């Protein structure tokens, strides 16, 4: 009768728990997801958060890049309707929605650098 015993039954009869075996199978998948989250998803979320804060803090004189690839200098901020007036060439101004900005090009000067004159 021993030759007819299945190998699955023989492995289970050795004392191994089926629940722990299933957990051990899914552990690598969970580990891959955790590494993927910390290496790719979380940094991208932080970058989007800082970009959103920079776009919300745009003021007159900042150089900006639109989603269409236009680089210009902000001349007027209209907070009521979420628009900016951007000068893209001398005496050429266009109205741009704030949501279409893809980058703020003006480097932010730290407060400590201003104090050390």
Structural notes for this entry:
The structure is a single chain. The chain is α+β, with helices and mostly antiparallel strands. It has two domains: 7-52, no CATH class; 59-109, SH3 type barrels, CATH 2.30.30. The protein is built from three helices and five strands, in the order ααβββββα. A hairpin with a 4-residue loop joins strand 2 and strand 3 (83-89).
**Roughly how many Å is the radius of gyration?**
29 Å
The CATH architecture assignment of the largest domain turns out to be: Roll
Report helical residue fraction. Answer: 40-55%
Q: Looking across the biggest beta sheet, what order are the strands in? A: 4-3-2-1-5
Strand content: 15-25%
What is the β-strand count?
5
CATH fold-type name of the largest domain = SH3 type barrels
How much is the average pLDDT?
A: 83
The tally of domains stands at 2
- Distance from N terminus to C terminus (CA atoms, Å) equals 93 Å
């Amino acid at each position: 009768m021993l030759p007819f015993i299945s190998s699955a039954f023989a492995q289970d009869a050795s004392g191994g728990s089926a629940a722990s075996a299933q957990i051990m199978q899914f552990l690598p998948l969970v580990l891959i997801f955790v590494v993927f989250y910390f290496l790719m998803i979380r940094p991208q979320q932080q970058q989007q958060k800082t970009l959103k804060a920079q776009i919300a803090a745009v003021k007159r004189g900042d150089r900006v890049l639109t989603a269409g690839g236009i680089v210009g200098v902000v001349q007027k901020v209209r907070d009521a309707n979420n628009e900016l007036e951007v000068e893209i060439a001398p005496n050429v101004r266009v109205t741009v929605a704030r949501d279409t900005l893809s980058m703020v090009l003006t480097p932010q000067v730290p407060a400590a650098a201003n104090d050390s004159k």
